[in-house]
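Good morning C.,

I know you're traveling, so I'll keep this short. The sequence:
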Amino acid sequence: MNNEDEFYDAVTGLDSDESYEGVSEASFKDALVFDGSSRKNNGSVPQENGIKKHRTSLPAAMFSRTTVSIWSILKKCIGLELSKITMPIAFNEPLSFLQRITEYMDHTYLINRACSLPDSIERMQAVAAFAVSAVASQWDRTGKPFNPLLGETYELTREDQGFRLVSEQVSHHPPVSAFHAESLVGDFVFHGSIYPKLKFWGKSVEAEPKGTITLEILKHNEAYTWSNPYCCVHNIILGKLWIEQYGTVEILNHSTGDKCVLNFKPCGMFGKELHKVEGYIQDKSKKKHCVIYGKWTECMWSVDPQVYEAHKKSERRGDNKKQKNEEQEGAENDDADDMPEVQETVSVVPGSTLLWRIDSRPAHSAEMYNFTNFAMSLNELEPGMEANVAPTDCRLRPDIRAMENGIMDEASREKERLEEKQRASRKERAKNEEEWSTRWFQMGTNPYTNSQGWLYTGGYFNRNYQGLPDIY
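The tokens, ready to paste straight into the viewer:
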């Protein structure tokens, strides 16, 4: 088998919630998702307020990965991109990458808040909090999602959060996932295409976030764009796995010229910066209106820039002596990149305003791939749903379903079968000189960045699935 035939399996990563009332019919490109009394709630049991319940656990707990050696696979890949390396199923989690990027929507209430605010700086604060919260689910998520098959899709409608989403795997080499989410009452559109580039560096795997994310707040005729920070999984070979995110994220309001610059800080030698995020919001004249700070694993706050600088100066004076003592005691570990001890929670500057705080995870999260409550529900196949979703939907993938149910041998066999089926389909298209045709997304120009990206063409929720490929 040559390299072009290798199946890509991505090693990528990607919490307060408010109910969304008053959901009504809105003007969309498509019809609403589930209509008719016979299909209402897909047969699931509603809560007292009429909102559909979602499961809070998986059918089976995760298994131990300690008996699987990843070194035998990765030892020849140091410094290379991992775009064509087949990984054993032991390192997966039972979700597709299409479902993983759906976790951006876990904190949709922050977008709804931005839509309701009259001031553009306050809207940017809410959008910045959403951008940070969108990667918060990656905390301790060291299992990698299944890479989507070409043509694979995923849909999700959450009436309690006021949105619906559709995504499609639009390219295989390179792997590109496109998504489009929209408010159920016409307040916003959120879309993008993600191409994570992955490299192995001996002890760690680094994911470079390729792709632009766009949020359109329709009420205010505003568009915001940004890209996600880098994500690194440490101790791939030896030691306890841990995750850090780092890099600069710039969020631009293309309508007003307001900009938010967020610095996701690397942990540093002594771990003082672990998980920290710090940045500011400025207007088009470059006047700083507020400082934003916190941790992507905990919470984000906003405060006046002058108050923040005065507080930091006071802190630095007290830290100088302490740092000298730590430098004398520090030692380097050549065997594993030990995760630094988590420092005290975010030190709140007096006068700060809370923008976002993460929800606690379920008590059994550690036994279930460290999933959040939102992640637990993403692969749920509710009664009646199979007749509504596209036959290419992730929920219908037999390898992910078997892994979720704890049947690992079957999951591994199914994964291998699907990979071989995808390779055979590609060879057949090449033999017949046929080009792959996407169904719900087309390459186009993002009107705000003028860059090329995959844009939703509409029609998915009309439920016309004729002609879709048999990928499973």
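Safe travels,
E.
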